[in-house]
Amino acid sequence: MNEGIFIAASAGLKQGRKLEVIAHNLANVNNTGYKKDSLVFKEFMPPFPPDQGLEGGRNVLLPPEISNSNVSYVGISDQYTDYSPGVVKQTNGTLDVALDGPGYLTISTEEGVRYTRNGNLRLNTKSQLVNQKGQAVLDTQGNPIVIDAPGADISIDQEGNISAGTGLVNLAIGQIKVVNFENSKTLEKIGNGLFHQTDPEAQIKPAKGTRLQQGFLENSNVSTVEEMTDMLATLRLFETYQKMIQSIDSMDDQSVNDIGRVG
Asked: How far apart are CA 16 and CA 4, in angstroms?
């Protein structure tokens, strides 16, 4: 079989993977604090190395001993998250907070401490400050924040300090823990706007210069127009590779029939 079919197929499969990523971004365009994903494409030339990164053996469509060393295949070397901030929108929600600058809120889950940019918070039945999944927001001491002040006005300043009162007398509740990391690439998405720090040696540091904005939320950083444009371009590429495969197959079929008639 003509190796051109395998080359075109490798490119088509990777465009299909790109469509999956784009579709996932579009599905989360309205999720608070969501960060878009993107792929990095790479040229692979035989003989293929044992470890090819993200896609591993799926980047190989022909064994190295069969593949022509003068051709190259399309592979995916990395999938990464774009951590650039999204547009901040005003909600006037008392417990809504947006991070103006780098960093993450610290959340306690059953699996351990996790991190998020989603500041859509509320109080549970125990008067604990939690996210929409009921997971506790932690203070600078690593403890859940309890706001037991029925009827009081809750205030959150730019440093994350929480107070409650009537204006004349305010009670200090605690301070929301906002952290950052030297290398955000070690963070892994685990769903519901949460990130898991996969590097056990990663140093947690305070998010210096980051301000909390009460009554605001951060939109996702997904641009619907850009993603739709990218999707159309990817679909056209996918169709192009399909036509290439059909053309090569048609030429092979014609060659076989012509050789048969000559014989």
From this structure: 18
- What does the alpha-carbon distance between residue 144 and residue 147 come to, in Å, rounded to a whole number? 10
Other CB atoms within a 10 A radius of the CB of residue 62 amount to: 17
Question: Between the CA of residue 200 and those of 106, 111, 197, 226, what are the distances in Å?
Answer: 16, 14, 7, 35
pLDDT in tens, 169-225: 788 999 999 999 988 889 999 988 999 999 988 889 989 889 999 999 999 999 999
Please identify every stretch of the chain with a pLDDT value under 50, giving residue numbers as ranges.
1, 53-60
Assess whether the previous peptide bond of 47 is cis (omega < 30° from 0). yes
Taking the C-alpha atoms of residue 37 and residue 222, their distance in angstroms, rounded to an integer, is 9
- Which residue type does 170 have? N
Which residues, at least 6 apart from 154, have a Cβ–Cβ distance to it below 8 Å? 94, 95, 147, 162, 163, 164
**Residues in the chain, how many?**
263
